[in-house]
Design a protein that fits this description.
alpha+beta, 5-stranded antiparallel beta sheet, 2 helices, 5 strands, about 30% strand
């Protein structure tokens, strides 16, 4: 799989609509999506994980960007994020830094 990237967001740094001070971001590769329904299924699965603040799924880029709540440990939550995507029938991996 690869590494994962964590981005600390501040007022001068944003990632599309996912921007909040002091939050952690995780990018996941998601393969197997082919339509808008797939995107919604992945979004819903990731949003159902406790500790997730916001989710943005990119069909064309085959990736998901997840903003975590402030006090959430990325290392602890990562297996749950990957599991949520794979339970929906898609392959998930970590985007390298």
């Amino acid at each position: 799989m690869g590494g994962y990237s964590i981005l600390s967001m501040n007022s001068s740094n944003s990632l599309n609509s996912l921007n909040s001070s002091n939050s952690s971001m995780v990018e996941l590769s998601v393969t197997g999506m082919s339509c808008g329904h797939c995107v919604k299924a992945v979004e819903k699965a990731l949003q159902g994980v406790a500790g997730v603040a916001k989710v943005q799924v990119d069909l064309a880029g085959q990736k998901a960007t997840v903003e975590l709540e402030n006090a959430v440990s990325v290392d602890k939550l990562l297996p749950e994020l990957l599991g949520a995507v794979t339970e929906e029938g898609y392959s998930a991996g970590l985007v390298s830094a």
